Amino acid sequence: MKNIYLDNASARPVEPRVSEFIRECLKDTFGNPSSLHSAGLEAKKIIEEARVKVAELINAENENCIIFTSGATETNNLAIKGVAFRNKEKKKRVVSSDIEHISVLNSMKELLKNGIEFNTVPVNSEGIVDIEKLSNILNSDVVITSVMYANSEIGTIEPVKEISETVHKMGGYFHSDATAAAGHIPIDVQKDGIDLLTLSSNDMYGPQGAGALYIKPGIKIQPVILGGGQEKGIRSGTENILAIAGMGEASKIAKKEMDEEAKRLIKMRDELIDGVLKIENSYLTGHPTRRLPYQASFRFNRIEGESILLNMDMYGIQIATGSACSSKTLEPSHTLLAIGLKHEEAHGSMVLTLGRANNTEEIPVVVKAVRETVERLRKLSPL
Ligand code: PMP
After folding, report:
1. What is the rounded distance in angstroms from the CA atom of residue 32 to the CA atom of residue 69?
2. Domains in the chain and their CATH numbers?
3. By C-alpha distance, which of 163, 172, 165, 167 is closest to 128?
4. How far is the CA of 152 from the centre of ligand 1 (A)?
């Protein structure tokens, strides 16, 4: 039985060209990038080259806008707490959408302990942030508003430019978590009006253990991790050189190949959606067209997502249910509740995320397995 991996939003296989690039770096580089001797300078060069490649992926003003971290969770913590703490004497409110990743929501909740107020803005049934409600929530006391670029669980791409304009009218900073979007759809921080952007290495086929924060020139933030002053004093700790090198190379490849790859994936995604929606009482979750090229997500009445996942695994097909990052909890996904699903509806979700390794021949195999799985589980269902 051939394995078909459709859980790319949880983890992506490292691109072989990236592995090869890292292997080459490993050959000669072992120095500490903060050391002034030649071994240190060699290591520093690798990091600085990666910084340029990441900056180019999102059209940052220059490479100095990029701060490397250990991943998206740390980056979200740094962006939100860093801006809120730096400005806490002047402004005392923060805002996010209802469908942010838990690392955004928990960073904002943490600020409550420091006398900062946190409000969330709802999304519609397709997962799009309600701009009018956002306008009503914002005032000049809001220091940072965080809305993700796209949601990997329902696939929806947010109207980021409109959101940034709304945020800026009230004088606050706009942060966007682009973990699910970067490297898959074009992002231009300057055109989009983004002040801070979260990026993740593995989500664009780089190695785990690296992430980055884009900070628009002129914006000052307070560091969260203190120490030797690496990364311009914003993120201390000796840099994870090889993961950062891989993230840079992954960004370069993504920038070059994104358009072609998106076309290929959209075709497969839409075939998946058409095929699965032919199953009785199945529904697409998220926006029908404003969606990530690699993402197809559904819900089914009367069955549990966990059972779908385990049954599909018996066909050799790996999928996700609910949130890719915290699917071990049995709580219904906060994103699915936020788009208006009832608890019992949110429990029957299935998330398929395609990647570079998938091909069109796999689609009918997957659709058939989903149909058989849903029919089998429904026969067994007491609901
Ligand atoms: N933000 C988003 C939108 C995510 O989907 C994830 C999980 N991949 C994260 C942040 C956190 O990523 P990590 O667990 O790699 O830090």
Report:
1. 16
2. 4-12+258-380 (3.90.1150.10), 16-253 (3.40.640.10)
3. 163
4. 9
Contacts 24+ apart (CB under 8 A), 261-267: 261/184, 261/293, 261/356, 262/184, 262/185, 262/293, 263/293, 265/293, 265/294, 265/354, 265/358, 266/293, 267/360
Separation between Cα atoms, residue 323 and residue 30, nearest integer Å? 38
Segment 142-179, tens digit of pLDDT: 999 999 999 999 999 999 999 999 999 999 999 999 99
Q: Which atom of ligand 1 is nearest to the CA of 152?
A: 5
Which position has the token pair 């529904």? 283
Confidence of residue 325 (pLDDT cuts 50, 70, 90): very low
Helix (H) / strand (E) element for 366: namely helix 362-380
Please state, as a whole number, how many other Cβ atoms lie within 10 Å of the Cβ of residue 26: 12
192: exposed, middle or buried (Cβ count in 10 Å: 0-12, 13-18, 19+) = buried
Amino acid at 52: V
Measured at the CA of 29, the angle between CA 24 and CA 32, to 5 degrees, comes to: 150
Task: Compute the distance from residue 100 Cα to the ligand 1 centre, in Å.
Answer: 10
Question: Residue 110 burial by CB count (10 A; 0-12/13-18/19+): exposed, middle or buried?
Answer: middle
Query: Which of 103, 147, 177, 328 to probe ligand 1 with, by most ligand atoms within 8 A of CB?
Result: 103
31 touches 37 (CB < 8 A): yes
Report how far residue 197's alpha carbon sits from residue 83's, in angstroms, rounded to the nearest whole number.
13
Q: What is the CA radius of gyration of the chain?
A: 21
Q: Whose CA is nearest to atom 14 of ligand 1?
A: 73
Percent of the chain with pLDDT over 90: 93
pLDDT mean across residues, the chain:
95
Please give all residues whose beta carbon lies within 6 A of any atom in ligand 1, as ranges: 71-73, 76, 101, 103, 148, 152, 177, 179-180, 200, 325
DSSP code, position 326: S
Tokens of 358: 């998938």
CA atoms within a 13 Å half-sphere pointing along the CA-CB vector of 334: 14
List residues with catalytic annotation.
325
Residue 328 pLDDT: 58
- Tell me the C-alpha distance between 169 and 152, whole Å: 28
